[in-house]
Protein 1
Amino acid sequence: MAKIHDTLLSLITGINKWQDNYEKIPDELYKGMLLFIEQTATSKAQPPVDLFHLLQILHRPSREWGISDLQDYYPEDAPLLKEFIGLTPDADEFLNRHISPQDAEQQYMYEILMYCREEGRQLGQEYTRIRTFLSNPQNAVITSFQLSEFAEIFPDLHLTNLIKQCYEEITPVVANYRKCPHCGWTLEYMNNRWRCNKEDICHLLADFESLSSYDFGKERVLRLLPGIQRFVLLPGMSELRIAQHLIRKGYEVELYPNVDEYDLSVSQDGKRIFLDVKDFRDPRTLANFFNHQNFAYLEKYKNQCLIVVPQYRSQLFASYRERSMALLNETAREYIEMIMENEIESTLKKVFL
C-alpha cells in the first residue's frame, strides 16, 4: 500500500514540477515511472516503455493502469492527466491530502491557521475574519489596494504578509479572463469553453450564458491562488451559506470554533453540535480520507460532529453520501456520521429534541 502512495505522489509531484519547466524532467517523475513499472509487473497490463508511453497511460482512467488496490488511494474513473488542463482535479486533491501543507499551493492558509493557533496568541477572531474574507466571492479577484486595506487591519505584520501571499497578480492578463458568475474567480477560455479552474464545478451552479469582464481601470489586479480557490473559497462558500441559513432558522452559529477545530458550531437551548464541511470530488476519495486517519483524529467526530457534503456534489455523483459511507472501513464507520447539505435542518431537529 505504501508503494501505491509513493507511486502516485512521485508522479504527481514530478509532473507538477515539469509543468513549470519542460526543459528538465524532474527526478520525482523518473522515480514515479520506475515505481509504476514495478507496480504493474504482476498484472496483465503493459508497463510503460518510456516517459511518453507513461503519459499516454496516465490519460486513461486509473482502473486501466494495472495497479491492484489503487482505488484505495485514487478514484477508479479518474485519469491523472487530462488534455488542456494537465494534472486533473483528482490529482490536485491527492496532492492536497498527501504532501506537507508547507509544500502545497495553499501553504499560506495553513501558515495562517498554525500562526493563529500558537499558544498565547488567542487569534481565533482574527482567523475567522480572514477565512470569511477568503470565502467571499467578492474577494476572489480584487485590487492591490483592496487587499492591502483588508490585510493591514491586523496589527501583526506577519499575519498581514501571509494574507497578501494568498493572492497572485494578474494585471497584465486580466483582459483575457471573465468573471465566474458563481465564485467570482477568473474564467479562462480553453477547448472552446470558459472554465473556472481545473474542476470547473461552477459550470453546474451558475448561468454561463452571459459573462462579464473585469473592470478595474489601471489598478493592479490580484486573484486568489488556484489552490486557495479550490480548497478555501469553494468549501468556504458552502460553510458561509450553511451558517447564514441556520442563523435565519434561529440557531446560534459560530464559524471555525477553537481556531478551525471544526467548521461550524451550532447551538440551541444549551445543546451543541459541530459541523465539518468536506468538499471532495469523488465519494471514494472522501471515504479514503477517513480510512487513512488515525484513531486520535477520528475520535473528535464521534457523537459530536456531523460531516456535511455540499449539495452540488450529488449532481456529479448520485447517492454520494451512501456511496461514501459504504466505502468507509470498519473503524471509520464507528466514528463518522455523514449527511448531505439538504439534510442538515432535519438532522438538527432530531439532535436538539
Protein 2
Amino acid sequence: MPSSLTLGTPLIHFETVDSTNKAALRASSNGAAEGTLFVAETQTAGRGRQSRKWHSPPGLGLYFSVLLHPKTAALEANNLVLQSAVAVCNAIEELYDYPVGIKWPNDIYSENKKLGGILLETTITDNTIENAVIGIGLNMRHSVEDFPNELREKTTSLQIVTGKDCTNTLLLDRILSIFGNYYFKREKCGINEWIKRCVHMEKRIYINHNGVALRGSFHEVSSDLSFILKDDSGHKNKIEYGEISLDMEV
C-alpha cells in the first residue's frame, strides 16, 4: 500500500541535471521517501522510451519525475503509465481548455504532433514493485524555431497549440493532484479513460514488432496496455511492446 497521501514533497529542484529519472533512481537507492519530486530546468541526458534522447532546452519545458513505493504486483506497472497519461491530459484540458490525446502507450499528442512523453522505470523484487519512478516531459513554451530541424514536423508545444502563456508550476501541481487521486485510489482511472484519449483507436497503424514491420488497425486495448492488431487478412495479433507509427507519420 502507498506510504503517504500526497505527492510532490519533498521537492528537489535542479537548474541542470542529467535526467530527473536518473536523479530519482539514485535517491531511491538511498531511501528517499515516496512522493519525492524531482524537477529540472534543463536535462543534459533526458530520455524517453527505448533510450531515445529527450530534447530538454532550459526554460522551455516541464521536466519532472516522482518517486513511488507501490508495493504492488509487477503486472500493475502499466497501470501507473495509464494513470499518469490520463492525468496529464486531464490537467491540460482543465487549465487550458484544449483537448489532447495519447499515442500508445505513453506519448501525449496534439494536432498529430508529440507534445510530451512519459517514462516509467521500476525496481522489482520477488514480483513486487518496490520503487517506481514516473518521468514526464512536456513541451511548454517552445516556438517552432526552438525545436531541432528534424523534430519540427512531428513535435509541438503547449504554447503553440493553445496560444496561451503556459506556467510550469500551475500544470505540475494539477498533474500531481489528479495523478495522486488515482494512485491513492481516491478516484478511479481505468482503461476506458485511456481509450477515450487514444488518438488512433480503430485506426490504421504500422508497428515494428520483434524486428518485423506489421500493419493493420488498432483494437481491443487491455488494462495492461497490450492491444490487438488486426491485419489486412483479418488475423489478430496481440501486441505488448513495440514502436507504432500513425498513418499521418508514414
Protein 3
Amino acid sequence: MSAVCGIIHMDGKPVSLENGKAMIDKLDIYKLDSKDICFRNQVFFGCGIQYITIESEKEKLPLFDESTGLTITADAIIDNRTELFALLDISEEPNKCITDSELILLAYKKWGQDCPKFLLGDFAFAIWDEKKKKLFCARDHVGKRTFYYYYSNNIFAFCTVIKPLFVVYDKDVNLNERWVTDFLALQGVLHESECSETIYKDIYQLPPAYTITLDSEGIKKNQYWNPLKEVQPLRLNSDEEYDEAFKKVFFEAVHCRLRSSNEVGIMLSGGLDSGSVACIAANKLSQEGKKLKAFSSIPMLKYKDNLSKCYTADESDFIEAISNSVDNIDVTYCRSEGKHSLTNIESFINILEQPYKTIENLFWYNEIIETASKNGCKVLLDGQYGNCTISYGDFFIHALTLYREGRILTLLKEIRSYSKLKNIHPYIVSKAVTKMILPYKFRKAVSNKLNKNYDRFSKVPVNSQLAKKWNVEKRFDEENLNQRTQRYYDLYETHKQIVNPVAFSHIGTMETKLSLANGIVKRDPTRDKRVIEFCLSLPTEQFVRNGHERYLIRRSMEGILPDKVRLNRSTRGLQSADWIQRLIPEWEHIYDKLEACLSDSNINAYIDVDKLKKELSSIRDIPDEKKWYSIRMIIISFIFSYFLKDFYKYT
C-alpha cells in the first residue's frame, strides 16, 4: 500500500518542484518503506510505499510509461490478479513479477475510464495522460483507501491524506462549518452525513466507487458501481446450492487477502464473522506451513461484570474454541491496561487529521494494530462488515419483509418458531411485529403528540443555533438521521444501508490512516465487492428461517467454525463494555480536564456549553454507566476542543 500525492497545473504552467517536495515530505509521519517522485513540467506525482506484499517490494512509483505518455501513482493492492492476467492476455512467467500498479496501468490502456470496474481490491490511484492533458483518478468500490483533492485556479492537487494539500492552498485554511455542525449533531460514531466534503473548507474526498476526470473541459465525477441497480436476485433450488455458492465467493474473498511479504494476522473476537474468517484463513495458511496470528481485545483485569446473561464482555472462551479448532492460530490477548477514551488524543488527531467519535474502542483498536505490526504482521484481517453481509439476519426485518410480500402464513409460522426459540410468548412477538407494520407517518404523528417537548439534540453537544443555521433538522429528516420516531426497514430497504457510501468512507478513513501510521494494512473479506453483491442477491429466508437468525453463516460454516461459536444463540459479545470503568481510577484528573475544556471560548460557537456543564456536574463524583451518553458527549467535546486548539495553533 502507499500514500500518494500530486499537483497538476491545468493551464500548462510548470509545477514548483519545491512545492512537490514539501508535499511528499509531509508524509514522513507515516511508516513508509520508500519514497519517490516524478516531475514533468506541469505535473508532479509522489508516492510513499509500504512493502505489504512481495509484489509491492518491486513497485517503482510513480511510474512513467514513455511509449504512451501515461504516468501513474497508486495506493493499491489488487486481489484478482490471476483474472486480470487472463483478461489482459499476460502470461504468468515465474521469474517476472508484475506489480499491482502495472496491472492498473495495463487495465487503463485496455478499458480506459471503465478500468475500475474490472479491478478487485483496495485502491486509489491517479493516471496522467501527457498527450491528451487529461487526469483520471479512482477510489475502490467500498472506499477502503482514501483520496482527497483540492481544485482552484487551474491547480488540482490530490493526496491519500489531507494536510499535504495545504502546501498548494492559495488562501487561508478554514474549517468547513457545515461538516463540523454535522459531526457534533450526529448520534453514534459517524463523523459525517455525506462523503464528498471534509472538515476543511475546499478540500474534498472522492466517494467510494467514484472516478474523477479532469481535462480542458473541467472536472467530472462518475459513479462506476451501484449494486442497488446492478445486482439481480439469485434463485437456486436448495440450501445446499446456496451454501456452495456462498462458500465459493467467501472463501475466495478470504484467500485472496492472504498475500503478505511477512506474517498474516487477524483481529479476532468470539463471534461468527471474524471467527469464520479466521478458520478459513488458518486452514489455507496451514497448507503453506504458515500460522495465523490472532489479536483479541478483552476487558481490563479489574473489570466488574454487571451485564445481563445475554451479553459477555470477555469472549476468550469462544476465542479459545476457535483457536483450538485448528492447530495454527496463535492468540495474543490485549487488555489495554491503563488506557481509556482520553489516551493518546493528540496522536490520534494528528494521524486522523480531524476530531473523532470512536471513543469507546479506538484505544484498544489501535493497540491491536500496533501489537500486530510489532509481531511482524503486514496484513491484519477482520470481519468488521460481517453483520451487514455474511452473518446478516434479523428476525424483525425478516418479519416485515414477509408481511410486505404478502406471505402472512409464513410470517405467523416464523413468529411461533421465534417465540419458541427465545422462550417469549407469541403475543409479545406479534405485538412488536405489529408496531413495525404500522405506517411510519401514523407512528410519527402519535409520537409527536405524546412527546411535544422532545429535543432531537439532547444527547449530542452541538450548539442549537449552529444546527439551525445549517438546517440540520430538515437535512437529517431527509437522510433518516437522529430519528425521533424509529423507521423500520424490510430486507430490500436495508440494502441501501448496507452499501451506504458514508459508512464505507467513514471506516475506510480510519483504517487507511491508522494503517499508514503502523506499517500494516487492514483487510476485510466481509466487505469484498463479490461478497456484498452475493448477499444482496439472496432472498430473506436465506438469512432467517424457522426463527433462526443469521441462518446462512451458521449453516454454511458447519464443520469449519466450531459449534460452540457457530450455534451460540444465547450470548453476544459486547466490545468495550469496560470503557467507562476504565475512567474511574483517573476520574478526578479527567473531570478537571473536561471542566477546563468547557471554559475554552473557542468552542462556544460550536457546542452547547451550558448543557454540557449541567451534564458534567451530574457525574462529579464517579462516572455512572447509566449516564454513558453524558460522558460520551462531554469527551467528544473535549476531543473537538483539543482539535480546535491544534488547528488555531498551526493556521
Protein 4
Amino acid sequence: MLVHIMAVRARLASLHVAEWVCGEWILFYATEFFMSAADSPHLFYRRVIFEVEPGLCRVAMEDEHHRFELAVGHDGEQITSVHSQAKRTPWSVCPQAERKLQAFVGQPLRQRISSRLSGIDAKQQCTHQYDLLTVALAQALSPGRREYVSRVRGAMHEYRHAELFLDGRQLLDWRLRGTRIDSQDVFDQRDLRDLMGWAEAELDDPTLEALYVQRRAVMVAASKGYNLDLVPNAGVAMRARAGACFVFQPERADQALRMRGSTRDDVQQAADLLSDWGIPLVNL
C-alpha cells in the first residue's frame, strides 16, 4: 500500500498544482500542451434531479463517486426541514454531515442562488449536499421536475469537453485546458478556480445556476484516470486540503476511511445514474 501511495504522490509531483477536494484530485497542469480528448476512454457523468411539489423539494444526485438524496421541506418562504440519505460516498464519515445540513433550516427561499449563505459555514458542510441545497433554495419556488445532466470527456491532461443539459436542452458546451474554459459563450477564457465572484455579479439567474451545477461536476470529473482506492483515509491529504469541507476537518480526517469499491466503473451513459428515478430526457 505504501508503495502505491508513493507512486501516486510521485505522479502528482510532476504537476504544477494538485489539490484534493472531498474525494477527488483537482489537477492544474503547468504545461500548455493538452492532448485531444475526442477519443479519450475517460467519460464522466453526473445527473441531478429536482422534484418540487407544494411544501417539498426532493433532490437526487449521482455520479460515479457519490449518490445523495435530499428531502427539503418548506413553508413557501423558508426551509423548515432537511433530511438526507448518503447512499454512496467516498469517505466513511460523509453520512455524518447530515447534522450540519440542519443549518439550512430557516434559510429563505430565493429566485437567485448564492454561493455564500448567511449563517452557514460551507467548509463545515458536505460540499456536494451544500451545493444541492443551495440550488434547491431557488428550485423550491417552482413546482415540477427538472433534471441536469453533465457529461465530461477526457482526463485532466487532455483537452476536455464538458457539456451541461437541462431537461434535454444543452446549456453549456465547453472545452477545458485544465480549469480554463474555451467556449463560444460568456465563460470563454474564464478559470473555474476564480470565476464565482464575477459570475454572481454579472450573470442572469439561469446562467448562474447552470455554472454552479457544472462547475462542481467538472471538478469531480478531474479524478478520471486515478484509482482513489489507493488513498487509505482523508488524513493523507490534510496537508493540501485541511478544513476544506466536513470530512477534511482536523478532528475527523484521520477517521474518514476511504470507502474502497465505492467508485462505480460501469457508468456508460446518463441512464446508468439514478435509474430508479426514471429515464433521462437526454441519454448521452
